[in-house]
Each structure stands twice: as C-alpha cells, then as structure tokens.
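Reminder to self: tokens first, then the designed residues, so the page reads top to bottom the way the pipeline ran.
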C-alpha cells in the first residue's frame, strides 16, 4: 500500500494517525464507559469493570487492551491483578487535537455564527 502524503508535513501526519487511533479506540460505548469509570477513580482492575459492565471478563480485557494500545489507558501489574489507570497526558493531547480541528473550521460550521 503506498504511503499517504499530508500537506501538513510528516510530524503532523504522525499526529493525525495518532489522533485517529485514539478516536477509533473511543468509538465504542463499552470503551467510553471504561474511560468514564477510570476517570472517577485513580485506578481499577478488570474485576472492577466486571462489576459494572454486563460483559464477560475476556471481553472487557479485549476492550482494555485496545485502549492501552491507543495509549489512553495505562496498565500496571499489581500482584495477581491487572491495574489500569487513565493516561491523562494522552487524553490532554486528544483534547488538544480536537480543539485544533475545531479551530480550523469555518465559524458557521461550529454554530458560532448563529449565536452572533
């Protein structure tokens, strides 16, 4: 497959792919709920999610793995358990990337023209 070129340079292209991967990881209701649960606590183990999500532990583990691969969630072994926490720096970068997208939109697309 040929390499796609972006008009904004290689560094920006890498950032675009990273942003896309994070948005894709958040594009599932279960993964959004996992992020919400982690935002409410400093860290959780897989069993904590099993208590609040009607899914098998293996399914929850797959969702956690995708969030870890995207860099949104951090994994740390904790004895016999797996501890997960939010990667706040990654979420901050994701928010910044979304703000940058909104900043280049025409005002009428953001709804600001209707308020003014």
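Designed residues (116 positions):
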């Amino acid at each position: 497959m040929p390499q796609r070129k972006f008009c904004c340079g290689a560094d920006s292209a890498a950032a675009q792919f990273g942003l896309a991967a994070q948005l894709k990881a958040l594009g599932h209701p279960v993964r959004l709920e996992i992020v919400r649960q982690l935002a409410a606590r400093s860290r959780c183990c897989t069993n904590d999610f099993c208590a609040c999500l009607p899914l098998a532990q293996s399914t929850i583990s797959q969702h956690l793995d995708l969030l870890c691969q995207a860099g949104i969630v951090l994994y740390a072994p904790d004895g016999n358990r797996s501890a997960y926490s939010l990667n706040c720096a990654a979420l901050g970068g994701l928010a910044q990337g979304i703000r940058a997208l909104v900043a280049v939109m025409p005002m009428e697309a953001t709804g600001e023209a209707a308020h003014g």
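The beta strands are 44-45, 73-78, 81-86.
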